[in-house]
Amino acid sequence: MALAVAYVAFVSCLTGTRPQEDVTYPPDANVVDVTKPPYGAKGDGTADDTPALRKALEESAKRRGCSVLYFPRGTYRVSDTLGWVQYLTLQGQSRTGTVIRLQDRAPGFQDPLSPKPVVFAGQSDPDAKDGLNTGFNNNIFNLTVEVGAGNAGAVGIEYCGHNQSSVRDVTIRTTDGKGHAGLSMVYRWPGPGLVKNLRVVGFEYGIDVDQRTYGLTLEHVVLENFGAAGIRNRRNVLSVRDLKTRGNGPALRNVEETRQGAVTLLDASLEGGSPSAPAIENDGILWLRNVKAVGYSAVVPGEGNSVKEFRSHPAVSFVPSASTSLGLPVQEAPDVGWPRDFSDWANVRKYGADPNDENDDAPGIQAAIDSGKSVVYLPRPEDGRYRVHSTVVVRGKVRRVVGFLSGLWPDQGLLGGPNAVLRIEPTEAPAVVLEGISGFRRPPALEPVWIEHASAKPLVLRHCGLTGGLKAYRALPGAGDLFIEDVVAGGWFFAKGQRVWARQFNTEYEHGESMVVNAGAHLWILGLKTEKANTVLDTRDGGRTEVLGGFIYAGKSADAYAERPPLFVTRGSEFCAVNVVSYGNLYPRQVVEWRGDRCETLPVEKLSDRGRYNKVIPLFRTAPVR
Known about the structure:
Elements: H1 2-15, E1 32-33, E2 44-48, H2 50-62, E3 67-71, E4 74-78, E5 82-84, E6 88-92, E7 98-102, E8 116-121, E9 138-147, E10 154-159, E11 166-174, E12 181-185, E13 193-201, E14 205-209, E15 216-224, E16 229-233, E17 237-247, E18 252-254, E19 262-272, E20 280-282, E21 285-294, E22 306-311, E23 345-347, H3 362-369, E24 375-377, E25 386-388, E26 392-396, E27 400-402, E28 407-410, E29 420-427, E30 432-435, E31 438-439, E32 449-453, E33 459-466, E34 471-475, E35 482-489, E36 492-494, E37 499-506, E38 516-519, E39 522-530, E40 537-540, E41 544-553, E42 568-571, E43 574-583, E44 589-595, E45 598-603, E46 608-609, E47 614-621
Parallel strand pairs: 1-3, 2-4, 3-6, 4-7, 5-8, 6-9, 7-9, 8-10, 9-11, 10-12, 11-13, 12-14, 13-15, 14-16, 15-17, 16-18, 17-19, 18-20, 19-21, 23-24, 24-27, 25-28, 26-29, 27-30, 28-31, 29-32, 30-33, 31-33, 32-34, 33-35, 34-36, 35-37, 36-38, 37-39, 38-40, 39-41, 40-42, 41-43, 42-44
Antiparallel strand pairs: 21-22, 43-47, 44-45, 46-47
């Protein structure tokens, strides 16, 4: 009885992080229901739904822009791989009630030496070993992938996504414990991407990761009953928080002959294994904080069963005493609920927005916001974009804006001045969530911003891609908490006194300014990724910044830049970076710190190697501001 209670408590640690959602959409949301014509998947656990689901995937891939394939509750039996390349979301109605199940003893899934996936995102051919980094906007949400008995070579999900991509609220399990890996990310080139609220039961490897780019962020992950290892990382950059494991092998193997793997792990509980072996095997770059092991000999050799903070490589700092991380407090994004009464949803098209003409859609979007509904949604157009000529203000009763990654196109009156595409003002809701908002604009227009935060209430940006020439975000004085989860956008300004938590933060920006300016805010980042040659992060005015894991990518040869600014700048503030990997040595000056008139520089030559072309900051921290 005691064991049963302990097991239930162990499993419930994940479901407690975020309520299970019964995700449904209005009929006019333009999502593709796989059970309806022309596809007609049965979802009865008996019929082979492979042909119907493959047809839905193939036809969705032909549509312009992003598609959402919706799986109502049911068990969808498949006999072969379901795969796609880019711009697609698999959305289940219920994490526990929507199941994609590989049949028992499916042909081709028996050989552990030749693994084969049930679901494959990011490749057109599962046998293509050298795919390109074009798995944009690949998402898998709120469902279960189950591997039937007798499939020892099966992989639950082989996943590759880029820029904005996420596996969220997903369970992967095997009925007989057999299988190669639950979640595999070994094909070129996984990341950046967010894996959040994942549970894997069984398999040799709970999570299997390879490739030296582009960095992956994992949070609230439970791995159970694995055979060889909970997580195997060979070369990638992993930023991991709240990992709970219970299995036979090590919880983490960060091992590969070139020693390129870099893992940042905090707030972890690792159970099982062997009392004669450590929970973590490492010959790469490793940083730990608040990690406990039960049933192993130690967390890592020589550190005992509880680690407050550990690093495998020496710290680099201008202050010898700054040898531990900053330890900023962490907070979860607020949950505003998912209204199931569609009378409380406002379709912007019904209020006059038409993405298929050349007219201004801002009045229609504003009318939907001012309709008194709590959810406003922008159905994805088959071919077109929502043109916005004036600022749209989020206010009133709105608590959630669902974009389905529909394109916003700022035009005319918005360009050429310090305007905003979306302005967040105080609402009656406790917080506002902007989800799946996509925007693009060329040529560059440097003054406007996508989002202006003018409310003291929290704002959540989730699964958004805001690219092109506009800056991403501007906080006005008194702006509330900001939560960033799986967002690609550059040009951020955080205001004094604000609190910001970012997970899978891709800050690409190429217009000669700092990608992120922290002007006196509390800024916590789990998993930073960026491209181009700007200063990535400028902390000033007494701000506090902590970066836990990051991948810095040039995107082009360093020789192409006549002047190369510093990677990080801090001015009279507190700054900490852990396991930040620079690929290509684009930044000769990794950190420049100003204290009054005194300036110190951390050159790239002082950093640890992470294989060819790579340098890593194992730990850098400034002295406290006095």
